[in-house]
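Hey, resending since the last one bounced:
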Amino acid sequence: MSQVLERGGRPELRCRLMARAAVVLAFLLAKLPPRRIRVILRVVRWHAKPTTYEQALAARSDVVAVNARCAGSYCLQRSLATTLLCRARGTWPAWIVGVRTPPFAAHAWVEVGGRPVGEPVESSTYRAILAVRPMSRR
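The structure tokens again:
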């Protein structure tokens, strides 16, 4: 779970507050058109180091621990909150939105090194149509 835990397995207060802030920002971002979300995320990722799988999984776990919607079927809000929480910690994962057919379905997730973070196996059936990946080092 989180990198810092209280007794009982919950993220410590500071981590919970950061995760809650990320969830609120993600809720607001999720109301925007996809193109606007992509533009905002591209700006926010500036100067962030690439996230490791463990860091992204810890951020996702913190987000899910503080918000029941993110623990459920709200994949867009969960993926945005996870991405924003990673950024608050100085790193950036790949934020992906994809689709599949048939039947048509859309899904948003976070991945590191091409590997979806905390997603069920059936997520591999989605084809990415929108992505904000870590900036390449030149």
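The chain has a mean pLDDT of 91.

Sorry for the duplicate.
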